[in-house]
Amino acid sequence: MNYTLWIILTGCLVGVTCGMSGVLLMLKKMSMIADAISHTVLLGIVGAFFVSQSLNGLPMLIGAAVVGLATAFFVESLHRSGIQSDAAIGVVFTSLFALGVVLISFIGDQVHLDTKHALMGEIAFVPWDTLQIKGESYGPVAVWMLGTVLVLNLILIAVFYKEIKISTFDPQYAKLIGVPVAFVHYLLMGMVSLSTVASFDSVGAILVVAMLIVPGATAYLLTDRFITLLLISGVVGILSAMIGYGAAVYWNVSIAGAMASATGLLFLAAFLFSPKHGWLMKKAKQRRLAANS
């Protein structure tokens, strides 16, 4: 596979992995916690480096998952204590992210991680960081990480599909019938954390946030069925990656930025032209009703 296809594949995997995880947060009205987790995992990555002296593989995933779950726990705890949820997210988000930024300064020049790299990322470098086994190259490390997390997320969704669906749409009823709502909640936070850190190093926090929030919001305008919502969200993520890469090459601009912008364009198209929820479709329906009255 050539250089271009590796970049497109990486973008598509980010779109599917983050899109399908983010849609679950959107349904629970917790989309902005995706923004918090996508930044606070920096603390988990830095912490994992201090422990393992490496930014690759399992230690990084574990560190990010721990901090992602801690972020969700702290936000939930503050919210239950009486603080508004948006304020709780803001407090935890800024505090943990700032701590991660401070700790980066202790790393110095030992690794390629800095705040600019963390926020922007550079997907164009993905094909150069390959998995080497006995001198043989098996493709970019980012593709293997994203593919592994995607498979894990799909398995978790399949195994806990009923519990996720019920606790998402009616948490009170879920508690009455014995669904472990708290477990499902932190399971979703773990999925988001793993999806974020698998994408973080290659594409940066900005594209991660866009893929976690916008594909799910776009899909929500196009369907009311849960399983279809998950599928459309993944498709929107893939289309955003492909359209964004084409635009980035044509105009010679940031690839990750173009992919994030493409998510906004697809959302705008759905917002305007969705058969049921589209703004233009609603206006046309109102005019027809007015003309017939």
From TrEMBL:
> Membrane-crossing residues?
6-25, 32-51, 57-75, 87-107, 141-161, 173-197, 203-222, 229-248, 254-273
- Single Gene Ontology BP term? response to zinc ion
Mind telling me which GO cellular component terms the entry cites?
Answer: ATP-binding cassette (ABC) transporter complex
Q: Where in the cell is it found?
A: Cell membrane
Which Gene3D superfamilies does this entry report, sorted A to Z? ABC transporter involved in vitamin B12 uptake, BtuC
State the Pfam families in the record.
Answer: ABC-3
Query: What are the record keywords, sorted?
Result: Cell membrane, Membrane, Transmembrane, Transmembrane helix, Transport
Keyword Iron-sulfur listed: no
The membrane topology of this protein is: Multi-pass membrane protein
Which InterPro entries does UniProt cross-reference here? ABC_BtuC-like (IPR037294), ABC_TroCD (IPR001626)
Predominant subcellular localization, coarse grouping: membrane
Report the family membership.
Belongs to the ABC-3 integral membrane protein family.
What protein am I looking at? Manganese/zinc/iron transport system permease protein
Tell me the classification of the organism that encodes this protein: Bacteria, Bacillati, Bacillota, Bacilli, Bacillales
